[in-house]
Backbone:
């Protein structure tokens, strides 16, 4: 089944980036379109054939004679392509966003029952040291080296396939390999890992998955150019951070653990039905508690939502698309050679993500190839 075309794709508009139809997030999904790409008739000020349609009376007269509009009605039925249907869709979608507040309260109560981790003392001390004008790599290394267990974990990460460029046997070496921003992030996630204390070998898979997504998100951010690489790394590192806590609270969660680490969008509904919460909302709460930036926390909360238009801020929307694509690539690059073509087609089907990130088919293929060697060393 072919992907539904948006109006600017069908008409081959050269100015779609400036057209309101390509920016109206609440309409994404209407008749299968992106933004208002299949509801352009109902958006004021669209730019068709280099003409700005400002007056709605003139616009509707023009649009009803448009071949694209006629095609929409033929494919979907006249009742589906009306201003009433369009407004109902937007209203319902907007209302769904308000459900998050109630779920947040319920999830916070669940996490409080097992203890929500806060930003560890070592992280607070590290931030103070980094911001000290007299700080040096040696002074930072001395601070972290006081915690032997934490130091061992950081050196292990620096020597892992995710980063290793040379052998590392010290905290100073780890800082040089990771870079200061990544070093701080690894300290934070390692400290949280120590706080979980869940005795399960599957947590190593969680750790590797989080690291892989973080690295892929960073690669995407670097390729795109206007997404913070640090925010991309943090979003990838923390996007599934609540799964170990749910596993600690609910032993039955083990059967859902694998699906939570995939990009399966159905997991949120499954978790909500079985445990009255989700790891995505739990991840938002844990990330907030650990002191992550608000935009990173928001993206973590919605990382299984393929509709990134729920983020009204354009920077958050691009960060969300970056994380979603990174999560997808981390999952689909594991398929066999027989299924490799299918996996690439699946990735390229996320047209909204590719639109947000200005990625094309070749970009997606190159990204998959970039992470293949890293992921292969983890098997």
Residues:
């Amino acid at each position: 089944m072919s992907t539904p075309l948006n109006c600017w794709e069908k008409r081959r508009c050269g100015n779609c980036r400036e057209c309101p139809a390509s920016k109206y997030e609440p309409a994404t999904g209407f008749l299968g379109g992106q933004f208002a790409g299949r509801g352009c008739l109902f958006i004021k000020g669209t730019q068709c054939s280099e003409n700005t349609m400002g007056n709605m009376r003139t616009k509707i007269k023009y649009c009803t004679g448009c071949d694209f509009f006629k095609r929409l009605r033929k494919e979907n039925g006249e009742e589906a392509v009306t201003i009433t249907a369009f407004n109902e869709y937007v209203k319902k979608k907007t209302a769904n966003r308000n459900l998050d507040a109630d779920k947040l309260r319920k999830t916070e109560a669940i996490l409080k029952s097992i203890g929500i981790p806060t930003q560890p003392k070592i992280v607070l001390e590290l931030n103070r040291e980094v911001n000290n004008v007299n700080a040096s790599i040696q002074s930072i290394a001395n601070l972290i080296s006081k915690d032997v267990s934490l130091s061992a974990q950081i050196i292990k990460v620096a020597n892992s396939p995710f980063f290793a460029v040379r052998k590392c046997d010290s905290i100073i070496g780890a800082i040089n390999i990771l870079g200061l921003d990544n070093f701080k992030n690894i300290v934070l996630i390692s400290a949280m890992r120590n706080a979980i204390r869940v005795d399960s070998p599957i947590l190593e898979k969680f750790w590797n998955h989080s690291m892989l997504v973080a690295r892929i998100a960073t690669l995407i951010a670097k390729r795109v150019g206007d997404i913070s690489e640090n925010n991309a790394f943090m979003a990838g590192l923390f996007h599934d951070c609540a799964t170990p806590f749910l596993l600690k609270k609910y032993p039955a969660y083990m059967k859902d653990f694998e699906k939570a680490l995939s990009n399966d969008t159905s997991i949120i509904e499954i978790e909500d039905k079985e445990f009255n919460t989700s790891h995505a909302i739990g991840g938002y709460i844990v990330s907030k508690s650990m002191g992550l930036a608000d935009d990173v926390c928001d993206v973590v909360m919605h990382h299984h939502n393929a509709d990134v238009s729920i983020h009204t801020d354009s920077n958050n929307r691009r960060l969300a698309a970056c994380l979603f694509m990174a999560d997808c690539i981390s999952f689909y690059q594991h398929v066999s050679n027989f299924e490799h073509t299918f996996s690439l087609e699946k990735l390229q089907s996320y047209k909204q993500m590719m639109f947000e990130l200005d990625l094309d088919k070749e970009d997606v293929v190159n990204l998959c190839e970039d992470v293949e060697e890293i992921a292969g060393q983890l098997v």
User: Anything to note?
Assistant: Confidence is low (pLDDT under 50) at residues 336-340. Residues 250 and 275 are 8 Å apart (CA to CA).
